[in-house]
């Protein structure tokens, strides 16, 4: 007898750029209060083409080339702006609005005035753009109460976290990565739905393992998975955690993994001092997982210097897969 049951849609490949575009398109269609603002986001389709086609579909009133100073007007009108920075290095020009206005208004109004705004754009080092365009701002914005901060790795992260950010009643900083925009990742059937979101504040275990825990966010999740594949050939099974959210941080998932593996390495592209890895170290030391550690936590970070321009120096200033492998073996005393 023939099986007439319809097969489920297969997973598809989608770049991070297209996932972000799809997320904004779906949310602009879903809620007429959602707007996109930023340099060249309209007719030019965005500096990185993340907003491609949105201006043609939604027009001048909802896809706006405008300076950051217009944001307060939109918030007072009860709208939900998405503000794109061409790079988060340029967000320093808007730090007062982000920290002193967006992050603090809900608290200072005793909960009367919510601030549903998204600040998004590429964060961290790209390639060959030197010191003024290569900083990771995860620790900067993760430091500030009143903000939520997410840092997607793959296409599902990008779509699900951005949609959650747009729907959130609080200001959310979405730290993307320029080098990932054109990278295709598998999108599950679930992620292809217009209703797909990823909860802010929940990490994901990308690879199960019992030898050591690797924790990373953004591009360095991929580095950790590559290192884990190499180490597996030597019998070292790494558990890889994709943080997804910087603030609020899912410390419980990290603790649970450390209690299983008894070892921890953190990986990030930012500077070491006061970084994401430093915060994770402190949380583990202060919590129940500390007594399960069989060795000190090791941090793999960017080098503590402004980013050089020369490619060979740039490569030596950022974590590489070999650096993660070296740190794992050092932590395990192999």
Strand content: 15-25%
pLDDT average, as an integer? 93
The ordered H/E elements are EHEHEHEHHEHEHEEEEHEEHEHEHH
Low-confidence stretches: 1-6
Number of strands: 14
How is the largest sheet built, in terms of strand order? 3-2-4-5-7-6-12
What overall geometry do the principal axes of the alpha carbons give? globular
The amount of helix comes to 25-40%
Distance between the first and last residues' Cα: 58 Å
SSE class = alpha/beta
Main sheet attributes: strand count, strand direction, barrel closure? 7 strands, mixed
Count of alpha/pi helices: 12
Report the radius of gyration as a whole number of Å. 20 Å
Give short descriptive properties of this protein.
disordered N terminus; single chain; 12 helices; 334 residues
Please provide a written account of the structure:
33% of the residues lie in helices and 17% in strands. With 334 residues, the protein is α/β, with parallel strands linked by helices. Strands 3-2-4-5-7-6-12 form a seven-stranded mixed sheet. Helix 1 (16-30) runs parallel beside helix 7 (155-167). The radius of gyration is 20 Å and the shape is globular.
Can you describe this structure in just a few lines?
This is Pyruvate dehydrogenase E1 component subunit beta. The protein has helices spanning 16-30, 54-58, 71-76, 95-102, 105-108, 138-142, 155-167, 219-232, 251-261, 276-286, 311-317, 321-331, and strands at residues 12-15, 34-38, 63-65, 80-84, 118-122, 148-150, 172-176, 184-187, 204-207, 212-216, 238-242, 245-247, 264-267, 298-300.
